[in-house]
Write a structure and sequence with these properties.
The chain has 365 residues and is an alpha/beta fold. It contains 15 helices and 9 strands. A hairpin with a 2-residue loop joins strand 4 (122-125) and strand 5.
Length: 365
């Protein structure tokens, strides 16, 4: 930390704006300034190092990013090997599928009378309008049908990644525009998508009719914990890009404590972490918890390097990040974690049982 306590930093010399600037020029402009512009520059440099180092990269999605159309940017990163696994709210997967099935989503307005919208069967996500019957209820029927049709490929208690996989598979086969869905893209590239708070979404709500019809699907979020921990356990270098906070942020970061605090198999946590958030740290809420704080829990390797928080709106910052990665980094070989996750869990299980047995023998003596 001592390197920051002197007057040796880069001289601030007001940079210029030109008409032919590309995304790399814009990022360099940010790097020559201060505040969150410079934090964004630092975040993008860390992200580039993460990619160049071959890290296993998790993308976490909180907030309504899919309904505003960011899904194809996520797909582009997946296709080029820059995202290896995803932790999301159920809402983002649910709303992402609207675009594959060509269900109506429109730009609306934020300063409206929601009583009037309700009377017109229009639901609102800030300034985005969605039809109640033509979109939501139609999507509900599609999801229920997809699960009933393909449930034979699921175990009795699948992980939420298994559930998302069949939703992507079904949309690839049956939707009008599968190329518009990151859920489909994840299925095609064996990128697991975890929904650790699945009950808090319309994906979870669509499990209710199946339960009442005595055809229940019981996704296991404990299996999610095992699979996500195995991903960190099997990869020498690991990192994440966190859009917002919420459950996806902590579920991803808790892989470190799962391995060290609980299983006692591996110490260290993530090598790289970049977060975009508008949450404050001083209220004690986890979405605002600093990445440096995570070091005390064993969630990250170092509190001093390889991580940065950019304060602001992911809807602004993520497209810049995606464009910068595409411009600066060579496509990477896809890790196809979905195909190997079950085997990794079994390997981790054997390692834990061996270690646990050894510890018991030591204590007995």
């Amino acid at each position: 930390m001592n390197k920051f306590h002197n007057f040796s930093g880069r001289k601030i010399d007001p940079p210029t704006i030109t008409s032919d600037m590309d995304v790399r020029d814009l990022v360099e402009y940010f790097g020559a300034t201060g505040f969150n512009a410079r934090r964004l520059y630092e975040a993008l440099q860390i992200t580039k190092r993460m990619m160049d180092d071959g890290a296993c990269v998790c993308l976490t999605l909180a907030g309504a990013l899919a309904p505003i159309g960011l899904g194809r940017a996520i797909s582009t990163l997946i296709e080029n090997g820059f995202v290896d696994w995803i932790v999301s709210t159920g809402a983002n997967v649910y709303h992402d599928l609207h675009f594959a099935y060509d269900l109506p989503v429109r730009q609306g307005y934020f300063d409206v009378d929601d009583n009037i919208l309700y009377s017109k069967q229009i639901v609102r996500i800030y300034d985005v309008f969605i039809k109640e019957i033509g979109t939501l209820q139609k999507q509900d029927g599609i999801i229920k049908s997809a699960i009933e049709t393909d449930r034979q490929v699921l175990s009795d208690e699948p992980s939420t990644a298994d559930l998302c996989n069949i939703l992507g598979m079904s949309a690839k086969k049956n939707s009008k525009y599968p190329e518009k869905s990151f859920t489909v893209c994840a299925y095609e590239n064996d990128v697991p998508i975890y929904l650790p708070a699945i009950a808090d979404s319309s994906i979870g709500l669509n499990m209710l009719p199946l339960l009442l019809e005595d055809k229940p699907i019981n996704p296991s979020v404990v299996l999610d914990i095992a699979e996500s921990a195995a991903i960190l356990w099997k990869n020498k270098i690991s990192g994440g890009i966190e859009l917002g906070g919420g459950v996806p942020k902590n579920f991803f970061q808790q892989t470190g404590p799962a391995l060290f605090q609980i299983l006692k198999l591996k110490e260290g946590g993530q090598d790289y972490l970049v977060q975009f958030t508008d949450a404050r740290p001083d209220t004690g809420g986890l979405s605002g918890a600093t990445l440096q704080e995570g070091k005390s829990w064993g969630k990250i390797k170092s509190a001093h390097e390889g991580n940065v928080i950019v304060y602001g709106d992911s809807s602004v910052y993520f497209p810049i990040l995606a464009a910068f990665i595409m411009a600066e980094c060579k496509p990477r070989e896809r890790k196809r974690i979905y195909k190997t996750k079950n085997a990794w869990v079994e390997e981790m299980k054997l390692a834990y049982l061996r270690s646990n047995s050894k510890q018991k023998r030591i204590k007995a003596h």
